Amino acid sequence: MSKVNIELTEDQYKKLVESIFLGTWMVNSTRMELDEEFEDMREQVLSHYKEAGMEKEIVHQEEVGVHDLDVDYEAQLLDTYVEEYDEFSFWDKLVEKLAEKRMADQYGTIESPLTEEMMQKRMEIEEEIGKKLEETGVTRLEFKE
Fold first, then answer.
1. What is the mean pLDDT of residues 94-122?
2. Positive or negative torsion for Cα 19, 88, 26, 76
């Protein structure tokens, strides 16, 4: 198998570390067992931390032979990127699911792919629901039995 060598500045390496951490976190955060290919890639990248002067951000756990991010650095990345992503994706997914429900209530089972007309109706419903949620948050959502 051929190899690829990449030269990075210290700043580029730091961004690569952040990207690897965030990507691996996203892939493995919902799994019972870690995706070993992602974990191997993460280990490969993190193992070069000394070359980039990242001794404060990355630690080598010699007893298990693994490199990890320092807990404060990891928390900073989670706060900076994951919290914002979770907040955005929650509202986006909520609007999407509420629109799907309304479409099903109004039009019954809808064939996929949607027709141009149905896509337009869905976009209008999503826009309406999005505006309502922006105004009221979840305070006006209710479940009827």
1. 90
2. positive
C-beta separation of 69 from 56 below 8 A: no
Cα torsion 49, 54, 57, 62: sign: positive
What phi and psi values does residue 132 have, to the nearest 5 degrees?
A: -60, -45
Q: Is the pLDDT of residue 145 over 80?
A: no
Cβ of 47: how many Cβ atoms within 10 Å? Answer: 14
Q: What average pLDDT is seen over the chain?
A: 92
Residue 117, pLDDT > 80, answer: yes
Q: DSSP character for 59?
A: E
Helix (H) or strand (E) holding 127: helix 116-136
